[in-house]
Write a structure and sequence with these properties.
Layout: H1 3-23, H2 30-43, H3 55-59, H4 62-82, H5 101-138, H6 140-144, H7 148-167, H8 188-203, H9 238-259
Helix pairs in contact: 1-2, 1-5, 1-8, 1-9, 2-5, 2-8, 5-7, 5-8
Length: about 270
């Protein structure tokens, strides 16, 4: 899928998780719900760090473009170094390493560690990166005609404000993880969810997605899982723009109201 659909699906997924958490007796304070949705929207773009034309490659200027080149080369090396006889040789690493569940878990754990051990500056850093990505994804029409510096300023201001809001324990600093030293540990969860939702979104497109790597399927370690071929579509097609994106908005909106206790879907 394209960047806007990925971001929108990420936000909807976290809001749906909020509704589920409320039903299980672990309701999210509204800041946790809002911040998690923004982080998840940004994290849903991150797997395309292996793809130079992707939205994330432009998000942080030369730094992100260089990082995309490095990650693509690493992903290509991992692919060719771990492929089985049924996996074709390929040039380029797009939709390989960063589109797998181990990668999602790794970046989620890394984000949690940065927030837990990095204190306020760690939280600010994680929030800033994901807010910039979320703005680029969710407001893509406005961003593509503007200057990226404005997006960075909005991301920095939003990160500063939201970090102050979360600092109050009642606003979600210790949601789900309540023991001493576990403040902000939950922030890794929307990062993992966003990456997995990205993989699911790519799995319903023509190329599929090898997100079960390194688990072999048949003669392939990089088996491109997906829906039956007749149900797949091309990225940017009318199915994505006129069916899936409106559906994500509806799911996200209803889930948000349920998570906040304003309606009951159960």
């Amino acid at each position: 899928m394209m960047g806007p659909a990925h971001s929108l699906s990420g936000a909807a997924a976290w809001l749906a998780a909020g509704a589920v958490a409320a039903g299980l007796g672990h309701p999210m304070p509204w800041p946790t719900l809002a911040v998690g949705a923004l982080i998840c929207a940004g994290a849903a773009l991150a797997p395309d760090l292996d793809h130079k034309p992707a939205t994330i490659s432009r998000a942080f200027g030369p730094l992100s473009r260089l990082l995309c080149v490095i990650v693509e080369h690493i992903a290509e090396a991992v692919y060719n170094g771990t492929r089985m006889k049924g996996d074709p040789h390929r040039n380029g690493g797009h939709r390989t390493l960063t589109h797998t569940w181990p990668w999602a878990v790794l970046i989620g754990a890394g984000s949690s560690a940065i927030c837990v051990y990095g204190g306020r500056w760690g939280v600010l850093g994680v929030l800033f990166v994901h807010l910039v990505l979320a703005i680029d994804g969710l407001l893509w029409r406005q961003v593509k005609s503007g200057h990226q510096l404005i997006v960075w300023l909005l991301g920095a201001a939003g990160a500063w404000i939201l970090a102050d809001v979360l600092k109050d324990p009642g606003n979600g600093r210790t949601w789900l993880f309540t023991h001493p030293g576990q403040q902000y540990l939950w922030i890794g969860l929307p990062v993992v969810l966003g990456a997995l939702v990205h993989c699911i979104g790519d799995a319903i497109t023509v190329s599929g997605c090898p997100f079960l790597w390194p688990i072999p399927i048949g003669r392939k370690r990089w088996y491109p899982l997906g829906t039956p071929h007749f149900m797949r579509f091309r990225a940017g097609s009318p199915v994505e723009l006129k069916v899936l994106m409106p559906m994500f908005m509806v799911i996200g909106g209803l889930s948000c109201l349920d998570a906040l206790g304003l309606i009951k879907l159960r």
